[in-house]
User: Fold these one by one.
Assistant:
Number 1:
Amino acid sequence: MALNKEFAARRLHSLLGIIPIGLFLMQHFVVNHFATRSAEAFNGAAHFMENLPFRIFLEMFLIYIPILFHGIYGLFIVFQGKANAKRFGYFRNWMYIFQRITGVFLLVFITWHVWDTWVQAQFFGAEVNYQMMADIVANPWMLAFYIVGILSATFHFSNGLWSFLVTWGITVTPKAQLAATYFTLAVFVAMSVIGLRAIFAFV
Amino acid sequence: MSDAQAQETRNAEETDTKKVKFIITRQDDPDSPSYDQEFEVPYRENMNVISALMEIRRNPVDSQGNQANPVIWDMNCLEEVCGACSMIINGTARQSCTALIDQLEQPIRLEPMKTFPVMRDLQVDRSRMFDSLKKVKAWIPIDGTYDLGPGPRMAENKRQWSYELSKCMTCGVCLEACPNVNDDSSFIGPAAISQVRLFNSHPTGEMNKSERLEALMGEGGISGCSNAQNCVEVCPKGIPLTTSIAAMNRETNIQSFKNFFGGGN
């Protein structure tokens, strides 16, 4: 039997959200966290990442293609659902809605973020360094935009990790799913702290 | 007249004059717009929504005293095992046979379930659920031209949890609560997925396991679930629907690997 398209696409969507996108998010936050040490430490780390061998292929296969698929197919999934938390205000139903709100917001935020940094560096001769980020978040509105973006990303990743565990049949019992709720909550808090510490290092 | 007798007479009088107020969403045919109509039904002890609807049918007059068409609804077993009388009662999808008037806030609002096409008034067409059961082959094929003999025995602990799954009455409440079951998606909903787990747990049914799993991997199958988990909260039979979905997630993943890489069937 041929692999069913919808089934395969949904499973791929779930997998890509964690591997590689979730892993990339962690790496991204950890590297940016160098900014809490000093501007030089951040510049050094950014420079190291910039000069990784085969960088274009790494970027292409580990982030651009997966995130494009995840984002566009995710949008398609959003349109297939009809939010009903007004009638059914259960915790998981709210998580279902927040997953969609943060997902759509992240599409906007990440597009802007890539335009503001990567595209500027790639095509307009800007240099990705501490000063670039400091200039961006000097505007309080941009800082707020980044804070919401970071929290959306950590929420979307943590809650996505929870449903990844269900989708792949790892957490089957209510007990395991509840434990995963606490675990992913801890992931959310930890990732948010790292991300927020990093962005405030540029203020 | 003793005090007790007097009290009884007073109670009886009160019962005579006490009215139960209803606001019912009505629809004359599948394509016409819906409208609300109010009814007042004389109270009787131990009344449920169905006996009140029967009262309206007996005397179809709305609360303004105008003649009305009798209200149409579905019912069958009257003991919450057939699932036919599901409707939205005061905002909650449930069976009208077990909705006792004494436990409901008035005026009692009756609406048809929204996920299904309305045929008339409170009667909806749940065909999509029965079509889904056919799609996933929710039965055990034992018919043949000769006696196949007794099947394999079933472990008692397995029988216990699979018995819980067999309580599903296709009432549609889980589909009503699911945000992913709607006109924009072909998702079959939680009930049929849980039935695959039930029939795959049966020692004879297990022999056709892969067919059911492959149906779940098809169009509108299990991948339509986004884990909002409303289904398990609202199921009137307390069926562990989300456990079934997660278990079938595991099984369909394994099946897809087997299909692609090979190994067993």
Number 2:
Amino acid sequence: MTPEHDIPADLIRSSRFRAEREENWKKLDELVSRAEKSGVQSLGYGNTMALASLYRQAMSSLSLARAISMDKALETYLAALCARAYLVVYAPQESIRGVTSRFLSRRIPQAVRRSWFPILLGFFMMIFGAVVAHILYRQDPSWFFTFVPGGLADGRTPEASVDYLRSTLFDDGDQNHEHLAVFSTFLFSHNTQIAILIFALGVFGALPSFVLTFYNGLVLGAFVTMFADAGLGFEAFGWLSIHGVTEISAIAIACGGGARLGLAVLEPGSCSRSEALYRAGRDAVTLIILAGLMLIAAAMIEGFLRQLVQDTMWRLIVGWGIGALWLAWFLLGGREDATGGLNADQESAGT
Amino acid sequence: MSSKTLSIHPPEGVPISFALASIGARFGGQLIDILLTYGGLILFFWLMIFTGIWDWSFLAALFFLLSFLVRTPYYIFSELVWNGRTLGKRITKTRVISADGKRLSAYQIVVRNLMKEVEVFMPIVVLFGGDLIGSESKAFMTFWMIAVLCVPLFSKRNQRLGDMIAGTLVVDQPATVLLPDLAVQNPSDRVDFTFTPEQLGVYGRFELQTLEQILREPPHTQEATDRLDAVARTIAEKIGFEGQVPPSDHWDFLSDFYRQQREFLESRHLFGDTRENKFHAGKSEKPTPKARSDSDHRP
């Protein structure tokens, strides 16, 4: 090796390497900064093309610098630059609209169809709970206080007068109006918490989901029986149906999602438990999002529609009609996939 | 927290490393997000009530809708649109990346933020949201919240539960600063020092890069100058430099030594003789106290 220390212009190898490429790195740095600030869309066609090729050049420079250079500053700089460029180049590419429409049109109905059994079991547990509560209540109305938490009852207890109970079903005054909106908000947050709890605990072997759903059935059964005993059974059924069809379905779907997780843990089949959990997770997450959407819809119905529709017959028609629409969506949506559509997504890991 | 780094293998096959975001940064980011979203919400409603445009029932319904949107949907949308950064993360300069080196998918973003509902929001609501539930489940929730908050402390890559399930990591946004190449600077009006290959062969990569750090900042205080002098004297003694080095030339001496040694080590490296540190010659050679002293001078 000939010493080159006395010729300032004559650079050592790694300095020459850097001097030759520095300009491109700076260009990449500038493009990446712009993309970070206002998105790749703001770069334009030419710059986006340049970004991709400059990124690859920088990657190869980094690889080379690690092999030949002992300049710590250079390696640190290049590593950070490549990391930043990597994050811009490999940004999530889905548009919000694309994700949402694919999710609504295909993933949700398909996930529901794949999980039909746990969801049905969830419904069954809910009804079973309601029947048990009904029988127990008939034997001794004080069971009501065991099943229904105080905050939820809102004065609607077996001791309440029939007039009061009727007034909770039919909204006739403005002073009640305000109260109801707040109460439905409270119910919504209560219901979401329950749905999330039912879902999240499902991972512990599916049983907690079913037990919690059963408990919700108990609350429901106690309420309905109480109203029925006051001679308001049909009215209460209408009052409950208009939002309850959606709400109870949401709880059952959350239960089905949680159960999918638990079943994957209990019975992973041919793959490992964590792998099975990961696979079931995709459907389960879809189901809990669906449950969330349905709970929003239920709260909307509860907050607005129920006050507009005061006739019990119409309440039944609206409630069960909406239920039929949900069912139609789940049964008919996302079917064109089976005939081999143009979906290039690798998400159909299920079935 | 000490900053941990981890390496990601992008499809290009060149490993790149990220510094994991510290627990403090993550907690701060989450706090900023909560303050911004809920603060904005409260401000909005305060204004609405103040102006009195809408009636109460509409406001209540709007409030419950918006307070739902500022939870999970806000995090999902902002991380999708801003590539793994919420407002809080932008402020704390952190971001979410996919642990497998591929691009962050919508599914991962949704999962990690849905888990946030269970991990962060539900316990907060239950703990501070009135007496919806019994005291034993409140105790359970407290326990759950503490357990969940501790997960990132004990997980190897500072992941919370949602990160583990989604396969994501939160890292510091890398900052790029290109420092000048020290081997290029060479003002002509000064004495040059020349070193023999034997002298250059004493140290290895570690010492070279330590010297690089020292040379990044010219000394301004007397203390720094003294330290520089000590480094120069130690090196001159260790390599057995024959000529006299006046204290005024110490900076030039070190610069020259750095450049020549870098060239020497890089070329040895190319020939397959990589010298990681000064113990490269014989592994049995014990470090003398004097030899150790120069690594103590790392700034």
